């Protein structure tokens, strides 16, 4: 009977493929508790004249790239019509049981290994209770007592120093990575005073990564998240798109005087880009410093970031301890992973279990290694390898140009960093939006290499190509008459004219002041609007100014 009712309900949900209206006013969800373990850190007390500094700890939810959900066979597809990807279990119908998705465990183990974590051979699932309409069971299955991976470290870098061209390397400790279910989505319809529920996301596998409060400002946090994003994308364990909610970052922020215990923290939510993450953190640090300097106290609260005003605004108080009534999940046995095939119990098929060694062997090249390879392979500077890997699509662009030109890598990187990236940044565009393809840039560089166009001319050609997408470098050179003049007779005539009209300069050169040759070169270039072949011109000028040579 129960299963009949359940069947009918689920059938309705699927058939209608609509949002379920919930005509109740719902309490807002609370997340982490306000436990203050902070005071145990840094116990020495220093003079209060020292400056207040920021402390940042991130909690990150990464949606696991998997075809099906964490505990059910429902497909994971984010563009599907609402409530069309919902199994009995996802809708929490009585009598349904969770079945753990091996792919999600492998993704968490792989991520743990890439972040230098210890993988717990045995981890546990727990129920975390809270009431919210998009959580039909009334609890979330998570890993409170014993997560799948612990004690890792993420090494990240950013460009610092005076000119922002020095690679600064830092580390942040990873406290743990736990597997847990995502909730559904609530959409508030104010007009009809309804909350609409879409359960497509309910039960999708998440990895929650908890970082220690090791960072001190927005720039560091942004760099750490960017590195994590690159790592997850390289591993294929999470697509990492923040604006689509695949990577959700909550920033815990406090201020203190170095050497003193950590201050009370606030938690900033609703941050959907790395740029906003940095801004939200820096705003929050300054706000807390202001509060402290005015003699006030910082409250343990959750705040939201408003990207329009650039401010954080209070969402809810966290002083009262939220009771999640954690309890072991009775329907899931402990999660066991095996070190290698030798540790498998007799009769266990290795394809049916998770073997850490196998995952280790399949780890792809991580971004830090990729950067080192770029430095070795092309002899480029570390800061350039950093930018190539960190700017989406730039490394691929550079390597494609390299394949199609004989130009030295160091010169190509100059073009990619200055001309290409300069234009992209100026117009707030991504690499994929560049109107000049790698092949088109390679063609231009080849023309420069073979003397068809000067280096300053090539820059002019680049600008024209940028504004008139589709035109080749050769077309632009012809149309704008930007080609290098290397016609010997023409150059001889112009040089002769310049030499004849500047006897004082010629005299100085003959008396050993070779620098004056550059002046004559400038005059020749002026005659030809900078298009004279400089090598040829220099040769001719030297010849013509040699004692008695004219
Ligand atoms: P809770 O028990 O409330 O979940 P945790 O100790 O697990 O607290 O920490 C949650 C997150 O808050 C972690 O990412 C941690 O780095 C960060 N955090 C803890 N204390 C501070 C603090 N004083 N300032 C900034 N971040 C902090
Ligand atoms: Mg916690």
TrEMBL record:
Kindly state one GO CC term assigned in the UniProt record.
Answer: glutamyl-tRNA(Gln) amidotransferase complex
Q: What subcellular locations does the record give?
A: Mitochondrion
* Segments forming a coiled coil: none
* Keyword annotations from UniProtKB, A to Z: ATP-binding, Ligase, Mitochondrion, Nucleotide-binding, Protein biosynthesis
Per its record, what are the GO molecular function terms? ATP binding; glutaminyl-tRNA synthase (glutamine-hydrolyzing) activity
Instruction: Write down the chemical reaction(s) this protein catalyses.
Output: L-aspartyl-tRNA(Asn) + L-glutamine + ATP + H2O = L-asparaginyl-tRNA(Asn) + L-glutamate + ADP + phosphate + 2 H(+); L-glutamyl-tRNA(Gln) + L-glutamine + ATP + H2O = L-glutaminyl-tRNA(Gln) + L-glutamate + ADP + phosphate + H(+)
Q: Which Pfam families match?
A: GatB_N, GatB_Yqey
Question: What main location does UniProt list?
Answer: mitochondrion
Q: Which Gene3D superfamilies match?
A: 1.10.10.410
Q: Which SMART domains match?
A: GatB_Yqey
Q: Name one GO biological process term.
A: mitochondrial translation
* Superkingdom, taxonomy of origin: Eukaryota
Q: Which residues form the Asn/Gln amidotransferase domain?
A: 396-545
UniProt entry tagged with the keyword Mitochondrion:
yes
Which Enzyme Commission number(s) are on file for it?
A: 6.3.5.-
Q: Does the keyword NADP apply?
A: no
- Assembly description: Subunit of the heterotrimeric GatCAB amidotransferase (AdT) complex, composed of A (QRSL1), B (GATB) and C (GATC) subunits.
Q: What does this protein do?
A: Allows the formation of correctly charged Gln-tRNA(Gln) through the transamidation of misacylated Glu-tRNA(Gln) in the mitochondria. The reaction takes place in the presence of glutamine and ATP through an activated gamma-phospho-Glu-tRNA(Gln).
Q: Which family does it belong to?
A: Belongs to the GatB/GatE family. GatB subfamily.
The name of this protein is Glutamyl-tRNA(Gln) amidotransferase subunit B, mitochondrial
Q: Which organism is it from?
A: Nothobranchius furzeri
Q: Which gene encodes it?
A: PET112
